């Protein structure tokens, strides 16, 4: 679901040259307003109402039955498989800009490392993926100089001054600060 709503504007470099600056800006503003924001709100609502692991599959199965749940899961898996194949290719294209002497073998090795690294993160669970995403974004921002020095990404969802913390598998008393 993450890439469905927030995969990022990768590969948009040729957009302005293809359709012109006005249409490109219109598309970049309209897409989040018409698609991404409603999709994000829908997912947030469904995830809070039906907090079962399985996302779209579970929601469609509950609403329309096992047959349509299966088809939704199958089609989501298919488009995700095709969509995810784009990101290593784009990463290599960006990397070749910074390392023009990158050989074909080195490009394949980087792409395989990227794929296996992403697979490993996803198999670890959503908390690990969310934390890693925060670190990746912070790395990009730091590299471009767009964040304050000394800041680190933090998870803020669901935190409060009286939250409980986990310490080596045991719950600690609430924090009051």
Main attributes?
single chain, 177 residues, mainly alpha, 3 domains, two-stranded antiparallel sheet, 8 helices, globular, disordered C terminus
Question: Your description of this structure?
Answer:
- The structure is a single chain.
- This protein has helices spanning 2-6, 15-19, 21-49, 56-64, 66-84, 86-98, 104-124, 126-144, and strands at residues 166-167, 170-171.
- The protein is an all-alpha fold.
- It has 3 domains: 1-49, no CATH class; 58-82, no CATH class; 85-154.
- It has a two-stranded antiparallel sheet.
- Strand 1 (166-167) and strand 2 form a beta hairpin.
- Helix 4 (56-64) runs antiparallel to helix 5 (66-84) and helix 6 (86-98) crosses helix 7.
Q: How many β-strands, per DSSP?
A: 2
Largest sheet: 2 strands, antiparallel
Q: How much helix is in the residues?
A: 55-70%
Quaternary structure of the protein = single chain
Low-confidence stretches: 156-177
Strand order of the largest sheet: 1-2
| Global mean pLDDT | 78
Helix and strand run: HHHHHHHHEE
Number of domains: 3
Spatial shape: globular
User: What is the count of helical runs?
Assistant: 8
Q: For the CA atoms, what is the radius of gyration?
A: 20 Å
Summing up helix and strand content along with how strands pair, one would put the structural category as: mainly alpha
Strand percentage lies at under 5%
Give a short synopsis of this structure.
Helix content is 68%, strand content 2%. The chain is an all-alpha fold. Strands 1-2 form a two-stranded antiparallel ribbon.
